Amino acid sequence: MHEDLIDREAHHLYAEHPGSAEGRRLSxxxxxxxxxxxxxxxxxxxxxGLSAIDLTALRYLVHAQREQRDVSPKDLIVLxxxxxxxxxxxxxxxxxxxxxxxxxxxxxxxxxxxxxxxGAVGLVRRVFEGHHEAVVQxxxxxxxxxxxxxxxxxxxxxxxxxRLPGGA
Length: 168
Known about the structure:
There is one protein chain. The chain has 168 residues and is mainly alpha-helical. It contains seven helices and two strands. The chain has a two-stranded antiparallel sheet. A hairpin with a 7-residue loop joins strand 1 (100-104) and strand 2. The longest helix is centred in the first third of the chain and has 28 residues, at 21-48. The relative contact order is 0.08.
């Protein structure tokens, strides 16, 4: 049932369909991937017990910590594309749940950084590990030429979307 709906979605583009059968197949595959990613995002939110924005913020903080980068609330506003008030509420919720700590800025007494706790790191790992492992496993099973072709196609599609007005 779900695959039929997703397949129909791929057939109802708001533009001309790709000209080749292979292009149409790729378009349908991309629609299936978008659907699978949306389902996984919903599963992750449910499994985490957090709201979508809180989980996204936590992922950013865990990723930054792995890269040994400091993140301030102002940085989180930019990363989330949100407002100061929203980020303040997100941070408060994460602090209350002992998932984030505030640490003092070394030179600016008025500023602080946001640091995920060990519990937050474990939560993010638990929620996303299966998803990431499945993706890596599927990629590793591709022939190198197929992986190159897929990377090229996805890169071109991403570049085209980035060039749209309001893109990156």
